[in-house]
Write a structure and sequence with these properties.
Number of strands: 12
CATH topology: Cyclic Phosphodiesterase, Chain: A
Bound molecules: adenosine-2'-monophosphate
Radius of gyration: 21 Å
Strand order of the largest sheet: 5-3-11-12
Number of helices: 4
Order of helices and strands: HEEEHEEHEEEHEEEE
Distance between the termini: 58 Å
Shape: globular
């Protein structure tokens, strides 16, 4: 018995499992340059504009993408505070504050060549401005997610999601076509809460939406806003909190 163990150690199978290597065309993804609108203002009042700095030659071969509403710093802070309250009730792992968002359409892995078509689909849309009231906590047993959403889905939001998805269909871009349920995931691997802590409604003024790239890291996932459409540069990119 002991001998067979020694044999395995001395003669390892040639079919060893190797970690998959993600091949990139030229170089790793380039972070967007974030230009503060006014360098002299302090962090809390700075509005940021995302300036894409990539050329198609430098893009990774595949990208994991999704469209989302990306909160500004104030909304993100309020969501993060509520996620801490919620965690006390149902444990789980908090989504880092800089990753909080509401997905409009999840595209997932796609080839870099599709990126221009995806951007063009987004650019076709008339982006409405509307108020989103985050006033409804929720929990899904099937994926053990605790989230915050809204009692009433604004008609403009439903239309934006519908039109975006229709534009993706026209552009032959595949995406997860599960019905749109607006929500911000706050906790993963959470237990069903006995009761939800009080959620003081969070007022989220929506004027734009974002295309986001998900970059897997050894210690989690980093989200990178790689495009925004709509009014006034009001999106605060991840990492700017
Ligand atoms: P979730 O927050 O409810 O998990 C990035 O993964 C974002 O896309 C997440 O907000 C995630 O939703 C959402 N998403 C929607 N469909 C998805 C899918 N099929 N796989 C992974 N994420 C998905």
């Amino acid at each position: 018995m002991g001998r067979s163990v020694v044999k395995r150690v001395l003669k390892p199978s040639r079919k060893r499992t190797v970690k998959p290597v993600v091949k990139r065309t030229v170089e790793p993804a380039v972070k967007p340059t974030v230009k503060p609108a006014n360098k002299t203002t302090n962090k809390t009042s700075t509005k940021a504009v995302v300036v894409p700095t990539e050329t198609s030659a430098a893009r990774p071969v595949t990208e994991r993408l999704f469209f989302a509403l990306w909160p500004d710093r104030t909304v993100r802070g309020a969501l993060a505070a509520y996620s801490r309250d919620l965690q006390r009730e149902c444990r789980g792992k908090r989504v880092p504050a800089q990753n909080l968002h509401a997905t409009l359409a999840f595209i997932g892995n796609t080839s870099a060549e599709k990126l221009d078509a995806i951007r063009a689909a987004a650019a076709k849309l008339a982006v409405p401005a509307f108020d989103l009231r985050i006033d409804r906590p929720g929990y899904w047993q099937h994926n053990t997610i605790a989230w915050a959403g809204c009692e009433t889905v604004p008609a403009e939001l439903q239309r934006l999601a519908d039109e975006l998805r229709a534009a993706l269909v026209s552009a032959d871009v595949k995406f997860d076509d599960k019905p749109f349920v607006p929500h911000v995931t706050l906790l993963r691997k959470a237990n069903r809460p006995q009761r939800f802590p009080r959620l003081v409604p969070i007022a989220w003024r929506v004027e734009s939406f974002a295309l986001v790239r998900s970059n897997p890291q050894t210690d989690g996932t980093a989200y990178e806003v790689i495009g925004t459409w709509g009014g006034g540069g009001g999106v605060t990119p991840a990492g700017e909190i």
